[in-house]
Design goal:
Blueprint lengths: L4 H8 L3 H10 L6 E2 L5 E2 L2 H15 L4 H9 L5 H35 L5 H8 L6 H11 L3 H12 L2 H23 L7 H17 L5 H13 L1 H4 L12 H16 L6
Antiparallel strand pairs: 1-2
Helix pairs in contact: 5-7, 9-10, 10-13, 11-13
């Protein structure tokens, strides 16, 4: 009985026009006829179509497919190996393009204009989560402070970043030491560390009033991706992010002009 053009189009997932084109070029012509004279596809035709679609998916041209299917002496394995090499080259190029796109997005979202090698040299285990950077950009894009911080980050040289990160590492060491020693988060030592962090932001990125610093610390405690920007996971302790948040808010309260009124 065979199958109609419409039926083959439906279950093969290709258009009737494509089947007509294959018929016209002789690549796949239905071998059966209905009682009314209409062309019908046999099981053998469908098997051939499956081969055609397989080769098309690999990127072979119709002429190449015709040669492979029609010539019993055609070296199909040789064609496949050549296509395999080409696809691997294309995959490598696509990976390179993905890296370029990710690099462009990373610069746009983080403001850090360094090569991957420079980033590794300067930041070490500190990583920028692109999903967090993208969300932060969307959330704060209309904030003058955020725009100023991004502009400052983009203007920093490799040497600037190296000094900045050295400051951060020294501060981080004192923060974890205070936490490990059981210094109270509302005490003078923790408050001073919070103030040092606030001044660091002001010096390197944007003026950071205490209320803004509080929002940043809240983000550290709420989102591990944010806290990883200042304390890499390998150096974190359970409770360290909330400890810093409490210290930041305690510092803000301590410095409030109305705290003693």
């Amino acid at each position: 009985m065979g199958y109609s053009v419409g039926q083959v189009s439906d279950f093969a997932g290709i258009t009737v026009r494509t089947l007509h084109h294959y018929d016209k070029t002789g690549l796949l012509s239905p071998t059966e006829r209905s009682a009314a004279g209409y062309r019908r596809y046999s099981d053998a035709d469908l098997a051939r179509l499956q081969q055609i679609l397989f080769y098309r998916q690999l990127g072979f041209g119709l002429d190449e497919i015709a040669t492979i299917l029609e010539d019993p002496q055609a070296n199909a394995l040789g064609h496949l190996r050549a296509r395999h090499r080409l696809l691997n080259r294309q995959i490598a190029e696509l990976h390179r393009m993905v890296e370029v796109a990710e690099r462009a997005m990373e610069v746009r979202r983080t403001g850090v204009e360094l090569t991957p090698e420079e980033r590794f040299e300067v930041f070490g285990e500190i990583t920028f989560d692109l999903s967090y950077a993208t969300e932060a950009d969307q959330r704060w894009q209309h904030s003058e402070g955020y725009r100023h911080a991004m502009a400052q980050a983009a203007a920093h040289s490799k040497e600037d970043w190296a000094r900045l990160m050295a400051e951060t590492a020294a501060w981080r060491q004192r923060l974890t030491a205070a936490f490990d020693a059981g210094e109270p988060a509302t005490g003078e030592t923790a408050r001073d560390l919070a103030e040092e962090h606030r001044q660091h932001i002001t010096r390197w990125f944007t003026p950071c009033p205490t209320d803004m610093h509080g929002r940043i610390a809240d983000d550290f405690a709420a989102d591990p991706r944010a806290f990883a920007l200042v304390v890499p996971p390998a150096e974190q302790r359970p409770g360290l992010a909330p400890y810093l948040r409490t210290a930041v808010h305690a510092n803000a309260a301590h410095r409030s002009p109305t705290r003693n009124t």
